Automatic annotation (TrEMBL):
Protein name per its UniProtKB record: Uncharacterized protein
Transmembrane segments annotated in the record for this chain: 20-39, 45-69, 81-101, 113-130
Lineage: Bacteria, Pseudomonadati, Pseudomonadota, Alphaproteobacteria, Caulobacterales
Swiss-Prot/TrEMBL keywords: Membrane, Transmembrane, Transmembrane helix
Protein backbone atom coordinates (compact mmCIF):
# COMPACT_ATOMS: atom_id res chain seq x y z
CA UNK A 1 0.00 0.00 0.00
CA UNK A 2 1.35 3.41 -0.94
CA UNK A 3 1.90 5.97 1.81
CA UNK A 4 -0.24 8.58 0.04
CA UNK A 5 -3.19 6.18 0.29
CA UNK A 6 -2.69 6.01 4.06
CA UNK A 7 -1.66 9.64 4.56
CA UNK A 8 -4.24 11.13 2.24
CA UNK A 9 -3.69 13.77 -0.38
CA UNK A 10 -6.16 16.39 0.72
CA UNK A 11 -6.02 18.62 3.80
CA UNK A 12 -8.88 16.86 5.61
CA UNK A 13 -7.37 13.39 5.26
CA UNK A 14 -3.89 14.51 6.29
CA UNK A 15 -5.29 16.36 9.31
CA UNK A 16 -7.50 13.43 10.32
CA UNK A 17 -4.73 10.85 10.01
CA UNK A 18 -2.15 13.07 11.71
CA UNK A 19 -4.46 13.94 14.59
CA UNK A 20 -5.45 10.31 15.04
CA UNK A 21 -1.82 9.16 15.05
CA UNK A 22 -0.55 11.89 17.37
CA UNK A 23 -3.42 11.54 19.83
CA UNK A 24 -2.94 7.76 19.85
CA UNK A 25 0.70 8.33 20.84
CA UNK A 26 -0.50 10.90 23.39
CA UNK A 27 -2.94 8.49 25.05
CA UNK A 28 -0.51 5.57 25.05
CA UNK A 29 2.26 7.79 26.44
CA UNK A 30 0.08 9.01 29.31
CA UNK A 31 -0.96 5.45 30.08
CA UNK A 32 2.65 4.27 29.91
CA UNK A 33 3.97 7.04 32.12
CA UNK A 34 1.16 6.50 34.63
CA UNK A 35 1.85 2.77 34.84
CA UNK A 36 5.61 3.35 34.96
CA UNK A 37 5.28 5.82 37.84
CA UNK A 38 2.75 3.71 39.76
CA UNK A 39 4.91 0.58 39.55
CA UNK A 40 8.16 2.45 40.16
CA UNK A 41 9.62 1.59 36.76
CA UNK A 42 10.19 5.21 35.78
CA UNK A 43 12.50 7.22 37.97
CA UNK A 44 15.03 10.00 37.53
CA UNK A 45 16.01 10.94 34.01
CA UNK A 46 13.87 8.15 32.47
CA UNK A 47 10.78 9.73 34.03
CA UNK A 48 11.68 13.12 32.57
CA UNK A 49 12.23 11.67 29.11
CA UNK A 50 9.00 9.66 29.27
CA UNK A 51 7.06 12.71 30.46
CA UNK A 52 8.18 14.60 27.34
CA UNK A 53 6.43 12.17 24.98
CA UNK A 54 2.82 13.38 25.57
CA UNK A 55 3.99 16.98 25.09
CA UNK A 56 5.72 16.07 21.84
CA UNK A 57 2.53 14.36 20.65
CA UNK A 58 0.62 17.57 21.39
CA UNK A 59 3.23 19.55 19.44
CA UNK A 60 2.81 17.13 16.52
CA UNK A 61 -0.98 17.50 16.60
CA UNK A 62 -0.67 21.28 16.57
CA UNK A 63 1.69 20.91 13.62
CA UNK A 64 -0.95 18.89 11.78
CA UNK A 65 -3.49 21.59 12.60
CA UNK A 66 -1.26 24.31 11.19
CA UNK A 67 -0.60 22.15 8.11
CA UNK A 68 -4.36 21.82 7.68
CA UNK A 69 -4.69 25.61 7.77
CA UNK A 70 -1.98 25.92 5.14
CA UNK A 71 -3.52 23.35 2.79
CA UNK A 72 -7.18 24.36 3.16
CA UNK A 73 -8.88 26.75 0.78
CA UNK A 74 -9.05 30.43 1.67
CA UNK A 75 -12.53 30.38 3.21
CA UNK A 76 -11.90 27.33 5.41
CA UNK A 77 -8.49 28.73 6.39
CA UNK A 78 -10.00 32.06 7.42
CA UNK A 79 -12.84 30.51 9.44
CA UNK A 80 -10.59 27.97 11.16
CA UNK A 81 -7.96 30.58 11.96
CA UNK A 82 -10.61 32.87 13.43
CA UNK A 83 -11.92 30.03 15.61
CA UNK A 84 -8.39 29.06 16.66
CA UNK A 85 -7.47 32.63 17.61
CA UNK A 86 -10.67 33.11 19.63
CA UNK A 87 -10.11 29.78 21.40
CA UNK A 88 -6.49 30.65 22.16
CA UNK A 89 -7.43 34.08 23.51
CA UNK A 90 -10.13 32.62 25.74
CA UNK A 91 -7.67 29.99 26.97
CA UNK A 92 -5.04 32.63 27.77
CA UNK A 93 -7.61 34.70 29.64
CA UNK A 94 -9.07 31.81 31.67
CA UNK A 95 -5.69 30.34 32.58
CA UNK A 96 -4.26 33.74 33.49
CA UNK A 97 -7.19 34.51 35.77
CA UNK A 98 -6.93 31.06 37.33
CA UNK A 99 -3.19 31.53 37.84
CA UNK A 100 -3.81 34.75 39.74
CA UNK A 101 -6.49 33.02 41.81
CA UNK A 102 -3.96 30.29 42.65
CA UNK A 103 -1.22 32.77 43.49
CA UNK A 104 -3.21 35.31 45.48
CA UNK A 105 -6.44 33.59 46.45
CA UNK A 106 -5.31 30.10 47.34
CA UNK A 107 -7.35 28.44 44.59
CA UNK A 108 -6.75 24.79 43.83
CA UNK A 109 -3.75 24.19 41.53
CA UNK A 110 -4.64 22.90 38.07
CA UNK A 111 -2.03 21.01 36.06
CA UNK A 112 -0.74 22.98 33.08
CA UNK A 113 -1.48 20.23 30.58
CA UNK A 114 -5.18 21.03 30.97
CA UNK A 115 -4.58 24.24 28.99
CA UNK A 116 -4.43 22.19 25.78
CA UNK A 117 -7.79 20.55 26.49
CA UNK A 118 -9.22 23.94 27.45
CA UNK A 119 -8.16 25.43 24.12
CA UNK A 120 -9.87 22.66 22.15
CA UNK A 121 -12.96 23.00 24.36
CA UNK A 122 -13.13 26.70 23.49
CA UNK A 123 -12.45 25.85 19.83
CA UNK A 124 -15.53 23.63 19.86
CA UNK A 125 -17.63 26.41 21.36
CA UNK A 126 -16.22 28.96 18.91
CA UNK A 127 -17.02 26.60 16.03
CA UNK A 128 -20.69 26.68 17.00
CA UNK A 129 -20.78 30.46 16.71
CA UNK A 130 -18.14 31.44 14.15
CA UNK A 131 -19.44 30.43 10.74
CA UNK A 132 -18.02 33.09 8.43
CA UNK A 133 -14.67 34.61 7.66
CA UNK A 134 -15.93 38.15 8.27
Amino acid sequence: MRIDKIWGGDADARYGFGTFASMTVYGLAIAGVSVGVNYGWLKGWMLYVAALVPGLAIAAQLGFTLDFFRRADEFVRAVMAKRFIVAACLTFAVWSVWGFLETFGGAYHLPGWLAYATMWFFFGIASAFIRSSR
